[in-house]
Amino acid sequence: MSCRCDKKDRTGNCVCDILRQIVEAQRDTVDHECQIGCEQSIQDLLGDSAAPNNLDTVPVLLYCDCDPFKGFGVYNNSSRTVVASYYFRVKSVDSDCCAVLELLRDPQESQQNFTDPTRQKTANLKTTGICITVDLDCFCHVTCLPAVNACS
To answer: According to its UniProt record, what is one Pfam family this protein matches (predicted)?
Structure first.
């Protein structure tokens, strides 16, 4: 059985819709039944207004043809180090389902480029300033991690 998302077989773009919800929820962060999943991560991010939780990011893992998507970018420093990540912060999603994603990494981890997502630590994900643009029509699955404080 293939997990490929052929446009002729699709009724909508659920990956695009979820990422739009995440962007909207993240914009509101100034200061269900599932315990882990996109809906719960969005609710955790929004939190209780009486008790701010300091969460600002729902890390996502995207899949293309059943394989985890790995994004690459370059740090803007003297070494111009190329880094990779499987985890992203959604910055924006336009009306054509093109998204700007920021690579997330644990700053205490080495600059190695991971071979699969289970080798990349997720407990202390932080923003990198490295952004890529992707076409969300190329993805058939999204996994949301629990909301984190990645921007501080």
So the answer is: Spore-coat_CotZ
Kindly state the helix (H) or strand (E) to which residue 127 belongs, with its residue range: strand 126-135
C-alpha–C-alpha distance, residues 33 and 35, integer Å: 6
H or E element in which residue 57 lies: none
Asked if the model's pLDDT at residue 11 lies above 80, the reply is no
The C-alpha R_g of the chain, in whole angstroms, comes to: 15
Task: Give domain limits for the chain.
Answer: 7-144
| Burial group, residue 125, by CB count within 10 angstroms (0-12, 13-18, 19+) | buried
Q: What is the mean pLDDT of the chain?
A: 82
8 A C-beta contact, residue 59 and residue 68: no
Predicted structure pTM score: 0.76
